[in-house]
Design a protein that fits this description.
The longest helix has about 35 residues. It contains 17 helices and no strands. The two termini are about 25 Å apart. It has about 400 residues and is mainly alpha-helical.
Length: about 400
């Protein structure tokens, strides 16, 4: 199964990289297409981001349910084809409605991350699921590093070049998957598709029937909201706290992404083997709690980089949670579970930026009772603390089909 694992790894890298590769040029492209100034471009950029996240929230259970019925292979291959076409359309766009359409479709294709995770669950043993989910986390971290770097380099050839590059990469991965990806959904695990379940609300209602899953999904949501404080306010926090420029913000994010790759790609296996999934999840969330609290006391740039080798160990929490939840549902519900988790991730990308930026704006304004750029990290620490309390009271339950 080596080649299919490589394909799934590449798909997650591409999903992560596809967002980052266009970030450096989106402001220029929006200004060019919409003929607007920078402030208006920022508003359009925010609208496009929300459209993307909302569709990812709505369609993750749909895509997951379809993959439980018709198989992972066709869903992944078709999604990569649509993704490549989407990037091509955005690269050729000369009207704002085409950019809007591109992000609308992009949110649907991004929902295939749940199918990729379900495929990984299909080919993993019960003992290896958390470790292999860690591999997917490493893929996301790698894409997080490569995307902005490649996008920045390609921007020298114009604001549209990164879109054409992303389309080419998606096409190449689609062709690769066509030849190496076997189907993992069999007649024994295939399940009838039902619209009442294939939406975020129906999926969550179905998850309520499985013992012990809803508290874990709540933990996952709280953890995701806390984690998305980084893309929400990191650039602003760096400027306010350390007087960073764009280059230093990029370097710090790349260093953090590299740390995630190392932890989730290489170190998580011995950690899981030594401590097990539950203890590893607690350890990861505890590292989040320590890190978010420590930001209140960092006043110099070197403080961030000195603390980073410890903070990146928080990356073990999500794969451990994924492994625990995947082992708690039947084989024919893996797509539905991953779809529900994909919707929660998308929901976190909507909630966290809205809340964290408001908190940051309040505590850095002239009317703030105390100047505290790190206030959003305190809120993230509180979110992690609640998640830890819920998780500590959770007990594994028998698998229910």
């Amino acid at each position: 199964m080596r080649l299919p694992v490589i394909f799934i790894f590449a798909t997650i890298v591409l999903d992560s990289m596809g967002i980052g590769i266009i970030m450096p040029v989106m402001p220029d492209l929006i200004r060019e297409v919409g003929n607007v100034d920078l402030s208006e471009a920022a508003l359009w950029g925010g609208t496009l981001t929300v459209v993307f996240a909302i569709n990812q929230f709505l369609f993750s259970p749909v895509i997951g349910g379809i993959s439980d019925t018709y198989g992972r292979r066709p869903v992944l291959i078709i999604a990569l084809f649509v993704m490549a076409l989407d990037y091509l359309v955005m690269g050729l766009a000369h009207a704002m409605w085409l950019l809007f359409l591109g992000r609308f479709v992009g949110g649907i294709t991004a929902a295939t991350q749940s199918t990729a995770s379900a495929y990984m669950a299909d080919i993993s043993t019960k003992e290896d699921k958390a470790k292999n989910f860690g591999l997917l986390g490493a893929a996301f971290g790698l894409g997080f590093i490569l995307g902005p770097i490649v996008g920045g380099l390609l921007s020298e050839y114009g604001s549209r070049a990164p879109f054409f590059a992303a389309a080419a990469i998606a096409s190449a991965n689609m062709i690769f998957g066509y030849f190496v990806l076997p189907e993992t959904v069999t007649d024994a695990t295939r399940r009838k598709f039902e619209w009442r379940r294939a939406n975020p609300f129906g999926a969550f209602k179905q998850m309520k029937k499985l013992p012990g899953i809803m508290p874990m999904l709540l933990v996952f949501l709280l953890l995701s909201i806390a984690f998305f404080v980084y893309p929400s306010i990191w650039a602003f926090f760096g400027r306010a706290q350390f007087n960073w420029g764009a280059r230093m913000v990029g370097m710090s994010l790349a260093a953090y992404g590299l740390g995630i790759v190392i932890v989730q790609g290489f170190l998580i296996r011995p950690i899981l083997t030594r401590f097990g999934e539950q203890a590893t999840a607690i350890f990861g969330m505890s590292m989040h709690l320590v890190t978010f609290t420590a930001y209140q006391f960092m006043t110099e740039t070197w403080h961030v980089f000195a603390f980073m080798p410890l903070s990146v160990f928080s990356a073990v929490a999500v794969p451990a949670l994924q492994g625990l939840m995947s082992n708690s549902v039947a084989d024919n519900a893996q797509g539905e579970l991953q779809g529900a988790m994909g919707s929660l991730t998308a929901l976190a990308t909507i909630i966290s930026p809205l809340v964290m930026t408001q908190v940051f704006g309040f505590f850095t304004s002239d009317d703030a009772p105390v100047y505290l750029p790190s206030a959003p990290f305190l809120l993230s620490a509180l979110s992690i603390l609640v998640a830890l309390l819920i998780f500590r009271s959770w007990k594994p339950q028998p698998v229910v089909a």
